Amino acid sequence: MDQSKKEQTMKQRATISPEFLKRTVDYTQFEFETTEQVPKLTSIVGQERGRAVMKFGLNVNKVGYNIYVSGIAGTGKTTFTHSLVKQFAKKETKLFDWCYVYDFEDGHKPKVLKLPVGMGKSLQKDMEKLVHNLKIDIPRAFNDENYQKEKATLIREFNEKSGEIFKQLNIVAAKYGFMIRQSSSGFVTVPSKNGQPLDEEEYRRLNDEQLKEIEKKSALLQEKVIDYTNQIRALEKEMKETLEKLDQKVALTAAGYHIEELKEKYKQCTTVITYLDTVQNDMLNHIGDFLQSEQERDAHPLTEMFRRSSKGNHFPNKYYIHLLVDNSETKGAPVITADNPTYYNLIGKVEYESRMGVMTTDFTKIKPGFLHYANGGYIIIQAKDILTKSFAWEGLKRALINHKLQIENIGEHSGLITTTSLNPEPIPLDVKVIIIGNLDIYQFLYHYDEDFSKLFKIKADFDVEMDFNVENMSKLASFIHTHCNEHQLRHFDRTAVAKIVEYSTRIAGHQNKLSTRFNQLVEVIYEADTWAKMMDDQIVSAKHIMKAIKERIYRSNLYEEKIQESIDEGTILINTDGKIVGQVNGLAVYNLGQYQFGKPARITATTFVGQNGIINIERESKMSGNIHNKGVYILEGYLGQQFAQEQPLALTAHIAFEQSYGGVDGDSASSTELYAILSSLAEVPIDQGLAVTGSVNQKGEIQPIGGVNEKIEGFFEVCKNKGLTGKQGVLIPHQNVKNLMLKEEVIESVENGQFHIYEVKTVEEGIEILTGVPAGQKNEHGNYEDETIYKKVEEKLKRFIKLSKKHAILK
């Protein structure tokens, strides 16, 4: 068999048949004509594992069994999480209303009232009504004629008794030659003569002996005065207490009816009864707060701000109910989505207001957070949101660890000076937290936050793919039906559904899988509907899907076109014909985020005598990533395995990605680099109409890579523009055959024999296809067969050793 026939046989053996280049979907297998006839989607598609784990996690009512939902963006994990949690939330649960009230013992520490659902709103209105009624009834009671008469009688009796004491005191004073006068500071003794006080002139005429006598009598009299003064003070105290009792009696008569009415209404709630008792006691101790003087009624409105601070403790706010969380309208358990989970939005805060330049606050300024609203239910938080907000993550953990919500000022944690004047009583916390994020965040928190594993014991993984089967295709049709109905789209016929399924397989990158990146499918669904509208079609069909996909590529492939132009013009050097020693077309993928594409890159190798082994020019110029460096090191291991068992490698090889200016990483070109080195050593040219992708291990086995479709299509585009010769093609790892979902244009060219795709398992198979020369095997003497690639490589390496010894390169 001549050389050309051998080459043809090798290629035929490795050629992939067109039917394996794409998994097509026969639209006739669908029983419906349009998605209008398809049932509505009732659950998420293709996430059985995630669904099962979520259901289990939501059923566990134990400490620490919060849930972390893990998956990449677009897999529907957020939508599904909300849907499933809302289903669970429909179950019966015991909720409460949460209120803050004034603490009459310490006004800076508002107290919590835990009330049955609906009672909070009712009690709030009742207390407002109570204060309103008392502000009318108490002043009215104190203006009552009976009260005034009784009070006047008590005052008159006091005056009579105090007058009698004063009279007796004057009689005693007269015996000592004095008179008693009352002043603001008490009793004053005044010398007298014949029942009349001495005037200044008479007092100056007194001699020393008379003055001493007066001072002596005055001292004796002061002792008597003290006794009478004490009697007066005792009488005043008694009078004051009697008047206070009278006031309390009158106030209780006015307020007692209303308070007793409330006690009767809330008699089933001991918390409220206790609170009403404290309110009543405080009201009786601060009756004056309800009484407005005539001056206050006539005062200017601006003086009201000053009057408030002087009347009791924030009267009448202190008697109000601050309803923090009202669950009277909540059906089932609350489900809260924390869309902006800052520290204060999660935990709550105390607000302030400025009065005449002074910051003031009270318990009615306490604002609830997401956790207050979610208490007794569920809260859903995006991981990226809470981790980017200062103190928010720590605040959430503290609340979960302590099982309570303590409203605090951030400044207290950061060591800054704060103006916080309130320390509200903490509220017991019972909530299930669901955090949605990706795997990287989960791993970071798990390894670097010791509390995370204790608080989030459930991890629900959402897969990026699902099995390609009839059931999942039917669910995908239901998915389209649901979106059409919910977003007023045109319905899809079965040809369109078949194309959506094929597109899903392409995204999944596996012929036996469908993608669960539903956001990408939804985009095509919306855009196909738009194209149908622009074409005046009432039903979306396959042509609209193809148009949508084509236009999506067009919107994003400007950079790809510029690279292709550079290749067409010869600015970027790529050969698609002829044979060259030590030069291979490698394949690279450019990822632009929303769009990725493949294009060939020339890889060259030069070999010569030396001891440096394989030198990666990219690494030497600091343009190579770690994975690419690893792939190059593997090449040296393979060469040593094959050719250095009985002799050293006296070799220096330089390999390079030509015209690479942006850095190289990944090991998918390692087999390509090996082919270039083998070609250079054997001095056998490589067919430039072929491109190669695939990594290699030290045993020479070709390993699978990513982006196989983009790489093939990228080289096909170059060959098409330069002219298809019928000899061009791509070598791919045999494991990647199942990943092929190529464009129709490429498949047609393969069917017509204009382009070829080869599957290879080993380096030997690959080098044979590239050069048309057998790789060679060792005979019983351990030598490679003549006229083979490896024989030529072996001879070249032996010659290098001789030259090395001759020139004393080897020691």
- Tertiary shape: elongated
Beta-strand fraction estimate? 15-25%
Count of DSSP-assigned helices: 29
Helix content: 40-55%
Measure the end-to-end span. 46 Å
Biggest sheet features: 7 strands, mixed
Class based on secondary structure composition and strand pairing: alpha/beta
- Number of beta-strand segments: 30
Q: What's the average pLDDT?
A: 85
Low-confidence stretches: 293-313
Order of strands across the main sheet: 23-24-22-21-26-29-30
What value does the Rg take, in angstroms?
47 Å
Q: What secondary-structure arrangement, pairings included, does this model have?
A:
Layout: H1 3-14, H2 48-59, E1 67-70, H3 77-89, E2 96-101, E3 111-116, H4 119-142, H5 145-175, E4 178-183, E5 186-193, E6 196-197, H6 200-204, H7 208-265, H8 270-285, H9 294-297, H10 303-310, E7 322-325, E8 335-338, H11 343-347, E9 349-350, E10 353-355, E11 358-360, E12 366-367, H12 370-374, E13 378-382, H13 383-386, H14 392-402, E14 404-405, H15 410-414, E15 427-428, E16 432-437, H16 439-448, H17 452-455, E17 458-461, E18 465-467, H18 470-486, H19 494-508, E19 513-515, H20 518-534, H21 542-556, H22 558-569, E20 579-580, E21 583-591, E22 596-608, E23 613-616, H23 617-620, H24 626-643, E24 652-657, H25 670-682, E25 686-687, E26 690-692, E27 695-696, E28 702-703, H26 708-722, E29 728-733, H27 744-751, E30 755-760, H28 763-771, H29 789-806
Parallel strand pairs: 1-16, 1-17, 8-13, 13-16, 21-26, 23-24, 26-29, 29-30
Antiparallel strand pairs: 2-3, 2-7, 4-5, 5-6, 9-12, 10-11, 14-15, 18-19, 20-25, 21-22, 22-24, 27-28
